[in-house]
Design goal:
By secondary structure, the protein is α/β, with parallel strands linked by helices. The protein is built from eight helices and eleven strands. It has a five-stranded parallel sheet with strand order 2-1-3-4-5, sandwiched between helices. It has a four-stranded antiparallel sheet with strand order 6-7-8-9, covered by helices on one side. Strand 10 and strand 11 form a beta hairpin. Helix 6 packs across helix 8. The longest helix has 15 residues. It is elongated. The chain starts with a strand and ends in a 5-residue tail after the last strand.
């Protein structure tokens, strides 16, 4: 398995190459973010170990640019930062995993094997259905470049529909995934919130993205309606 390590600290970079090579990985090393971006264009890598604090281009921007280019190489962020917001930021921009220094090579190797089992499936940080864009990390929604203000519940409902776009989703499924205590609610609350969404994301734009499938549930059009 071939791994790209992007790490600017010389001693740690050499240690990572040595440690991962001893575990049977083929390892290449990039010393800064710009070099790492160039090398990551080689689709032969199975995973990337990416430091956050890098010269020239930081790790966040490396990850962001790779995902914007639809490069789905699994990325593990490796950093000395251990704040929960740093971890959340890394995952929100498209990283697949996060490990803090100091670390065990046993744990690092296990994380890499887990990432490689998942493979290169598309997992964009920003969800899209036609011109409807939803950013779960930033909690923003836009249509045709226009910002749309959604409540927390409306956002969660729309996110689930976008993730299931093209498929029929029942009221019970929506209750189970969007509401914390679905069994105490009248299923018609879903219909009420679908109405709220339509008035915000469809009607002002002359669109019909959320379709009612009689007797079955709702379906969000993959082209955004």
């Amino acid at each position: 398995m071939r791994v790209l390590v992007i790490e600017d600290h010389p001693a740690l970079g050499r240690a990572l190459v040595h440690g991962l090579s001893a575990e049977g990985f083929a390892v290449d090393l990039a010393a800064d973010g710009e070099e790492g971006l160039f090398m990551a264009g080689d689709t032969g890598y199975d995973a990337i170990v990416l430091d956050i604090m890098l010269p020239r281009v930081n790790g966040y921007d490396v990850c962001r640019r790779l995902r914007a280019a639809k490069n789905w190489i699994p990325i593990l962020m490796l950093t000395a930062k251990d704040g929960e917001y740093d971890e959340a930021d890394a995952l929100d921009i498209g990283a697949d995993d996060y490990l803090t220094k100091p670390f065990s090579y046993v744990v690092l190797t296990a994380h890499l094997h887990a990432l490689m089992r998942r493979g290169r499936r598309p997992r964009p940080a920003v969800l899209r259905a036609g011109d409807l864009l939803l950013d779960p990390g930033g909690r923003t929604c836009r249509r045709g470049g226009v910002s749309i203000d959604l409540t927390t519940r409306e956002f969660s409902l729309l996110e689930y529909l976008v993730r299931q776009q093209g498929q029929v989703v029942s009221k019970q499924d929506l209750l189970a995934h969007v509401w914390a205590e679905p069994y105490d609610l009248d299923p018609n609350v879903v219909e009420v919130y679908i109405g709220y969404l339509r008035r915000k994301i469809d009607q002002p734009f002359g669109a019909r993205s959320i379709e009612t499938v009689r007797g079955a549930g709702y379906r969000l059009a993959g082209d955004g309606g």
